[in-house]
């Protein structure tokens, strides 16, 4: 029994509550939320080391035994994701201090920001399927507010779409949970897994598995269900966009990973379906990424590509491919946050997001340019950097299990990813200075600090692969062998 | 010509206390009978809405000078604080404690920390409902 694993949920929760009382004093809000963000990083790092040393940590909330109460479970995967979330949240927070503006800060921006982190951390940590739904809603409610806060025309229009899609997918989530509950009669994830294994291969379980894929696919933007994402993520300001791009879709991806490895590990049909959909997701993302001349749109479509790559690794279901997927998942969260923050700076400097109207930034802002260059190479997976190992493992295990088409498309997608981000680099940084020729140099150091640190983390993550590998492979071991998870929760 | 709401306002004055009493009854009976923090809070805010219908927003804020947004914060603090209290006692989050006490007038009564949690729910429900209604009512 340990209370440590609830701390990443409680710290932002209390911060969010306390900030309600300081709505008028922006300075106090900044100090409190900055301090709590750093504290959350420290606590989740301690939690991750504890999980690594002592195995899976569980906690029965309210002291009720496992299948009857709500259990919080922190295995290596969720501990790593919570740590990554805390780091990204801190980076976006410190970026917000300099860029978000007083109007938003006075209207509970930091409060809502913290509630979003509560939802994300809770979704990563919970061991109960309905509790997962509740944390999804906490996260989504906060994201609705962050999306609409400020009230510009485009934000209002896109939040209507975003809320509509998510209300429908939440209703579907409740319906799926109701179906599952009527079949297995329990809500605890470990207990559901045991009951499904007892029930064997029933048709209704396959139907429920596909329903879950639709629900989490809507949250995580897989192929036919990603239609809402490019518009909705285009609307909010840069730090919010970075939070959304790095965290929200990844919660959907995590839920697919969790349910498909824990509940339905033996269902061949659903994994084939997941594989086909993930390949189509990559293709759809690639088409979007190379089609646009808008820097925000290019990075947004890169989210969709990454979701496809991660899920392709999951659908192969070998230990190596799982390790690759976890590697790629964490890399992608960090690097997407860094890229969105940099894109925010570029768009601010150029006064436009249109690639054709900017150029020559490298003369005045060399630091910004080279940070973006490194982040772009890391995104594409150039060997010493962070995106390489994950994709290598995914592609290799894809070839081993004879998914030649899928692996080939993953390899090809890297090329197009590189093309799309290099298009931004060449268009925005090379060439003659255009849109802002006569203006004075704008200081960007304060804004650049957060994405530069994230890029540095991504570089270290790539260079230190040897050191991190045992941690990641421990996470993948729980995924390929659900008995470890079940025994830790039900203590049998 | 100015309309005269004397009947509405007088009836409101009487009914208000009945509704408030009923909501408090619902709140405290929640552990053993249907009721609890949510319906209790909703009914209390129903009473304040009745007051808003009979009078105008300015009068009501003069009668009840409460910042409902801070009330939401206070309610959240109550509920989250109750859960965290268990951490200090070395138990898992949200573990509740209870005891039986003999009180004068009420006799043998059980005191349960779940009531504190429900108080939080009660405050949040009132705060949220009144914030929504006042914000929509005030905007032009």
Automatic annotation (TrEMBL), chain A:
TM spans (from-to): 6-24, 31-52, 72-95, 107-124, 130-150, 162-184, 204-228, 240-261, 273-292, 299-316, 328-347, 368-389, 409-430, 442-463
Q: Which residues form the NADH:quinone oxidoreductase/Mrp antiporter transmembrane domain?
A: 128-416
Q: What InterPro entries does this protein's entry cite? A: CPA3_Na-H_Antiporter_D, NADH_UbQ_OxRdtase, ND/Mrp_TM
Provide one Gene Ontology biological process annotation.
ATP synthesis coupled electron transport
Cellular localisation: Cell membrane; Membrane
Topology within the bilayer: Multi-pass membrane protein
Entry GO MF terms: antiporter activity; NADH dehydrogenase (ubiquinone) activity
Query: Keywords in UniProt for this one?
Result: Antiport, Cell membrane, Membrane, Transmembrane, Transmembrane helix, Transport
Q: Taking the first listed entry, what is the main subcellular location of this protein, grouped into a coarse class? A: membrane
Q: Name the GO cellular-component terms.
A: plasma membrane
The family this protein is said to belong to: Belongs to the CPA3 antiporters (TC 2.A.63) subunit D family.
Protein's recorded name:
Na+/H+ antiporter subunit D
What broad taxonomic lineage does this protein's source fall under?
Answer: Bacteria, Bacillati, Bacillota, Bacilli, Bacillales
From TrEMBL, chain B:
Q: Which InterPro entries match?
A: CPA3_antiporter_subunitB, MnhB
Which GO terms of the cellular component aspect does the record hold?
plasma membrane
Q: Which keywords appear in this protein's UniProt record, sorted alphabetically?
A: Cell membrane, Membrane, Transmembrane, Transmembrane helix
Span-the-membrane segments of this chain are: 7-28, 34-55, 76-94, 114-133
Where does the signal sequence lie?
Answer: none
The listed locations are:
Cell membrane
| Na+/H+ antiporter MnhB subunit-related protein domain ranges (all copies) | 7-131
Q: Name one Pfam family in it.
A: MnhB
Q: According to its UniProt record, which protein family does this protein belong to?
A: Belongs to the CPA3 antiporters (TC 2.A.63) subunit B family.
Q: What is this protein called?
A: Na(+)/H(+) antiporter subunit B
State the organism of origin.
Answer: Mesobacillus zeae
């Amino acid at each position: 029994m340990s209370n440590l694993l609830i701390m990443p949920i409680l710290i932002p929760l209390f911060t969010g509550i306390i900030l309600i009382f300081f709505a008028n004093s922006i300075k106090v809000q900044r100090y409190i939320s900055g301090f709590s963000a750093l504290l959350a990083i420290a606590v989740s790092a301690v939690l991750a080391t504890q999980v690594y040393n002592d195995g899976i940590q569980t906690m029965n909330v309210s002291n009720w035994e496992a299948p009857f109460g709500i259990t919080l479970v922190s295995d290596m995967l969720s501990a790593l994701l919570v740590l990554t979330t805390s780091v990204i949240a801190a980076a976006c927070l410190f970026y917000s201090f300099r860029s978000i503006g007083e109007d938003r800060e006075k209207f509970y921006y930091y409060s809502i920001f913290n509630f979003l982190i509560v939802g994300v951390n809770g979704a990563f940590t919970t061991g109960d399927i309905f509790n997962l739904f509740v944390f999804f809603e906490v996260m989504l409610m906060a994201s609705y507010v962050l999306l609409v806060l400020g009230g510009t025309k485009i934000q209002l229009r896109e939040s209507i779409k975003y809320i509509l899609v998510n209300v429908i997918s939440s209703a579907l989530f409740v319906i799926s949970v109701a179906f599952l509950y009527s079949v297995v009669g329990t809500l605890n994830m470990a207990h559901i897994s045991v009951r499904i294994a007892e029930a064997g291969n029933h048709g209704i379980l396959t139907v429920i598995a596909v329903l879950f894929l639709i629900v989490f696919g809507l949250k995580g933007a897989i192929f036919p269900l990603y239609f809402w994402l490019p518009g909705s993520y285009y609307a909010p300001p840069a730090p919010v966009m970075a939070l959304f791009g790095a965290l929200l879709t990844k919660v959907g991806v995590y839920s697919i990973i969790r349910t498909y490895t824990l509940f339905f590990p033996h269902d061949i049909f659903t994994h084939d379906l997941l594989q086909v959909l993930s390949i189509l997701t990559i293709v759809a993302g690639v088409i979007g990424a190379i089609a646009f001349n808008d820097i925000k749109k290019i990075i947004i479509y890169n989210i969709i590509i990454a979701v496809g790559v991660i899920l392709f690794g999951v659908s192969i279901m070998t230990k190596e491919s799982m390790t690759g997927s976890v590697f790629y998942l964490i890399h992608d969260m960090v690097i997407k946050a860094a890229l969105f923050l940099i894109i925010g700076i570029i768009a601010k400097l150029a006064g436009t997001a249109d690639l054709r109207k900017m150029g020559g930034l490298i003369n005045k802002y060399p630091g910004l340019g080279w940070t973006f260059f490194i982040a772009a190479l890391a995104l594409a997976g150039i060997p010493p950097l962070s995106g390489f190992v994950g994709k290598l493992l995914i592609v290799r295990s894809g070839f081993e299990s004879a998914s030649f088409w899928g692996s080939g498309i993953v390899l090809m997608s890297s090329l197009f990813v590189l093309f799309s981000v290099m298009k931004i680099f060449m268009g925005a940084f090379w060439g003659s200075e255009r849109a802002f020729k006569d203006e004075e140099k704008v200081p960007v150091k304060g804004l650049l600090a957060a994405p530069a640190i994230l890029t540095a983390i991504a570089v270290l993550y790539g260079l230190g692969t040897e050191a991190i590998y045992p941690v990641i492979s421990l996470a993948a071991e729980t995924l390929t062998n659900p008995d470890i998870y079940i025994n830790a929760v039900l203590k049998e | 010509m100015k309309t005269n709401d004397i009947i509405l306002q007088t009836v409101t004055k009487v009914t208000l206390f009945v509704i408030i009493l009923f909501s408090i009854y619902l709140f405290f009976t929640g552990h053993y009978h249907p009721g609890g923090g949510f319906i209790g809070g909703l009914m209390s805010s129903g009473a304040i809405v009745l007051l808003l219908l009979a009078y105008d927003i300015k009068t009501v804020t003069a009668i009840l000078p409460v910042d409902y947004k801070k009330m939401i914060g206070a309610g959240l603090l109550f509920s989250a604080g109750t859960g965290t209290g268990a951490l200090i006692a070395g138990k898992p989050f949200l573990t509740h404690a209870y005891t039986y006490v003999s009180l004068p007038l009420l006799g043998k009564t059980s005191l349960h920390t779940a009531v504190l949690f429900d108080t939080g729910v009660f405050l949040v429900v009132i705060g949220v409902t009144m914030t929504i209604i006042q914000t929509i009512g005030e905007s032009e």
